[in-house]
Amino acid sequence: xxxxxxxxxxxxxxxxxxxxxxxxxxxxxxxxxxxxxxxxxxxxxxxxxxxxxxxxxxxxxxxxxxxxxxxxxxxxxxxxxxxxxxxxxxxxxxxxxxxxxxxxxxxxxxxxxxxxxxxxxxxxxxxxxxxxxxxxxxxxxxxxxxxxxxxxxxxxxxxxxxxxxxxxxxxxxxxxxxxxxxxxxxxxxxxxxxxxxxxxxxxxxxxxxxxxxxxxxxxxxxxxxxxxxxxxxxxxxxxxxxxxxxxxxxxxxxxxxxxxxxxxxxxxxxxxxxxxxxxxxxxxxxxxxxxxxxxxxxxxxxxxxxxxxxxxxxxxxx
Length: 318
Description:
Layout: H1 2-33, E1 36-48, E2 54-56, E3 63-71, H2 72-80, E4 83-88, E5 93-95, E6 98-102, H3 103-113, E7 119-123, E8 127-130, E9 132-134, E10 136-143, E11 146-150, E12 154-156, E13 161-163, E14 166-171, H4 173-176, E15 182-184, E16 187-192, E17 196-203, E18 212-213, E19 217-222, E20 224-239, E21 245-250, E22 253-261, H5 262-265, E23 274-278, E24 289-296, E25 303-306, E26 310-317
């Protein structure tokens, strides 16, 4: 019984001693953290305010090491998290083929962003060399890579519309000079029977590593209408027949099938078409057939088709 009592007291003394030891250590630790220290810390660089004629290269320096004086509490913060500082590139200088910011310019920018409790002593370099390069710019057309499939008796009325239909590209002149167009990602639409509009991502060439693009998508839209067909009987005109002869064709008119929207067909007449047979196409042969060509048709119709593409003829001397 006595041994148990002594053992319990000893355990209690150990716990009390350990508690006082921990408290003493914490007090000492906090006291030391409140003291000023000099040490080095890393800062991540965030470049901003690039001049319009320059671009930041892929190999740009992304961090800088600085010697600072501050309390131990602040150093704990920097050890657990790298601090970010903005670097204003509007002050960049061009020297001996390189773009640089002097140590003094970088220090002034950093000091404005650091807490008043932090003193910046020096940097790990006497100047910050920034990987910049001269850029050119040009507008490049955007082209749609799109597959449209319509329901029966429906068509695209007019052209596809892209918004924007051009994109501004900035980069090294030798790089962007090779660019003639930017295509959208592949889009497939099926069973279309109504107007459509869709935002589509653009596909950029992988070879343009140092170029930037004003946007990464465009809107593709189109108007869809129901169509019908109508036939028109059109007289045939024969051109370039021999002087002193006249040409009789069999038949002297031809049927044309026109595919268009219902509203369009209401306004189309046979005068909107012109069918020509050119005698020169015989090239001196003794054939008696002339091929036909549609030389005039209504604008923006979906299709015009000759039901016969050749005719017989007879030359008669006048």
